[in-house]
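Thread: Modeling a multi-component assembly for a lab meeting

Hi all, long-time lurker, first post. My supervisor asked me to bring a structural picture of a complex we are working on to next week's group meeting, and I have zero experience with this. I have the sequence lines for every component (563 residues in total). Could someone generate the structure of the whole assembly? Inputs are pasted exactly as I received them:
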Amino acid sequence: MNRLSWFNVTSLTLGFAFLYLPMVILVIYSFNESKLVTVWAGFSTKWYGELLQNEAFLDAAWVTIKVAVLSSTFATVLGTMAAYVLVRGGRFLGRTLFSGMIYAPLVMPEVITGLSLLLLFIGIGLDRGVLTIVLAHTTFSMCYVSVVVSSRLMTFDRSLEEAALDLGCSSFDAFRLVTLPIIAPAVISGWLLAFTLSLDDLVIASFTAGPSATTLPIKIFSAVRLGVSPEINALSTIMIGIVTVGVISASLISKRNSLRQQRDEQAAARTA
Amino acid sequence: MQRFALIAIPYAWLLALFLIPFVIVFKISLSDIALAIPPYTPTLSDGVGPFFSALDFENFAFLASDDLYWKAYVSSLRIAAISTILTLLVGYPIAYAMARAPEEWRPTLMMLVILPFWTSFLIRVYAWMGILSQEGFLNQFLLWTGLIDAPLTILNTTTAVYIGIVYTYVPFMILPIFAALDRLDGSLIEAAEDLGCSRLQAFWLVTIPLSKNGIIAGSFLVFIPALGEFVIPSLLGGSGTLMIGKVLWEEFFNNRDWPVASAVAVILLLILIIPIVLFQRNQQRQAEEEA
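Re: Modeling a multi-component assembly
Sure thing. I ran the full set together rather than chain by chain. Output:
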């Protein structure tokens, strides 16, 4: 199928232009001298300077990072446990309900998740703040982690675990020494996914955040409701930059690792 | 013991923070609004007997009697359906071209499709505000080319909402279709062409049916989240764009009517159950076909 017709080339070009042009325009206008976002008045980095002086944004960024680190770490632990239960747990009472609760949050509208968690927090009298956002984010991201990890668990050779158990490992040691190193890439991508989901979330955070803790998306949302502003463009550019560098380096690292693994396997095959 | 803890911890977490909150939403949807903290009645402190006898379906009757809510549900369904079709029309040619691209390009093309997904959703929607506004990039460009004489009003209309949904969800459409097309055996198309099909016929009779699973999966992945979408209609849509996610938000934050907001959520959930169950079935059947 390696014949790209002019039609294919056009769809790729237009498709990727559609995906990337809006962000490119956003980045370009973040360097605009003028306050009017749509009129180009020369190159300037002054909006970045103003951004760094804006304490409200800096505070919100700090809260957001704290929430993301905590919630993605909890979500990774809980999600990996849940994946292990789903794939290796066998039968137990309420298994259907359990797997339902893992998959349902993936398709649940955020407004409903947010509303229901808020009503819970108010019902039990928990003050809204960093803690409540962390609890909310952990709950929906653990489901994403569990999906990523369980797909890895399903494809790996179970006899490796059984061999470790036969050779005298306790089941916890077998998990720690055999299973975990094998599923580690999936666990790491689960963590990264949970981290970005948390950084990105506006709706659930709006419901579960109190006046004491505002996250960056909440701040951005209330600012952009009033219209386009060059400061938000600058902030967006920084965020796009971080993500791009992160994703590209992660994919290069995983490529290098898989090449190294291939080499090791070949070397092992030669010595055997 | 270890096994018990392993199952019990995530189980208890999900029960406490996923299932119980829904029970609470359901309960509050049966309550009445009150000038109190929390702003609804009854609460369990009223005693168990009076608590249950005070619950009723009043809020649902109110939703049914008020035109606004009906229109919001219908309009959400319509917007989600139309944008799913538009996303398919935009996504399919891209997925198709990716599957025909040389093998060594494909991982890079895949990464280019996934990369926007890692970027903030809010920022991707915001980017369109600057493009679609009256003095925005698109209008400036169209005026410059001379295609139009006066700027078009796109921002704050339903058209802008369609553009926003297609833009943010198209990766969800491309990836499953690409996965289906990537597995497709090219010799089948050659066979069809050898047997006298034109290229278009071969595409229509062989390629499309064989990528059906990808199309269905992608459509659900767009339709389901689009139905409850809040950010896109509130930033790109105008007052004329009714979407239920936005109505729920406003009912809760602006009108502070928690019982009605909860009733809106319950109905939205009931509407969503149908596509979610269909999607699950489709995924299961697909998994069985592959096994």
